[in-house]
Amino acid sequence: MPPDTASAHSGASAVQLSDAQLLRLIYSAWDFQQALSAVTFLLEDCDYGSKYNAVSLRRLRCYETTAIISFCRPLEPSRGSTVLGFRVLGVRLTAQEEKLKKRVLQLRRKVVAHSDEEAMLFLAEILQPLEDVPIEIPHFQFKELGCCRFRGHRPKLLTLSQSLSD
After folding, report:
1. Is 31 helix (H, G, I), strand (E, B) or coil?
2. pLDDT 10s digit of each residue in the chain, 166 long?
3. Quick one: 22 exposed, middle or buried, by C-beta within 10 A (0-12, 13-18, 19+)?
4. What's the farthest any 2 CA atoms get from each other in the chain?
5. CA-CA distance, 123 to 139, in Å (whole number)?
6. DSSP 46-77
7. Are 77 and 163 in contact (CB under 8 A)?
8. Contacts of 165 (CB under 8 A, 6+ apart)
9. What's this model's pTM, rounded to 2 decimal places?
């Protein structure tokens, strides 16, 4: 085997990886473990029947954001980094897992990693606290949408992250 390649096993067949791909694989294992932890924490802490204040919703949203970013990191190009697709590793996703992967990637691209105006809601108003003083203060209220960006898919993402973390 040439010195710039390594073998990774998936079932009975060996996959040839370049040094860059092998390094990306090592980092990807950490990314998928982080996604798994974030989804686990979210499932443990979020009760869909409960109402949460804005700060608690943001805490749950942090778990959700970490899950999405960490899961997608190996699948998206970054500065000077090799993208590592599942096919290179011999991993075949079911149709349902592929659909989930696309949904999570869409959330990352459209909402999580970028400030998308279509997905962000806020109310702005100008307050004048003292009638006789001409001072105006801008006040912004952000719509906390709860943690529902991939609500029905969380257990599926947990299972997929577990299988990829192993």
Report:
1. helix
2. 344 444 343 444 567 888 888 888 888 889 999 999 999 998 888 887 788 887 888 888 889 889 999 999 888 887 777 777 777 777 888 898 888 888 889 888 877 777 666 666 777 888 888 888 889 998 887 765 545 555 565 566 667 666 666 5
3. middle
4. 82
5. 8
6. --TTS---HHHHHHHHHHHHHHHHHHHGGGS-
7. no
8. 29, 32, 33, 36
9. 0.69
Q: How far is CA 19 from the centre of its chain?
A: 26
Distance between CA atoms of 123 and 143, rounded to whole angstroms?
8
The closest of 44, 36, 38, 48 to 152, measured between CA atoms, is: 48
Spatial CA neighbour of 108 closest among 142, 150, 48, 146: 150
Distances (CA, A) of 120 to 5, 48, 62, 110, 138: 45, 22, 16, 11, 18
Distance CA 45, CA 71 (A): 20
Q: Which residue has the tokens 């090592």?
A: 26
Name the DSSP class of 114: S
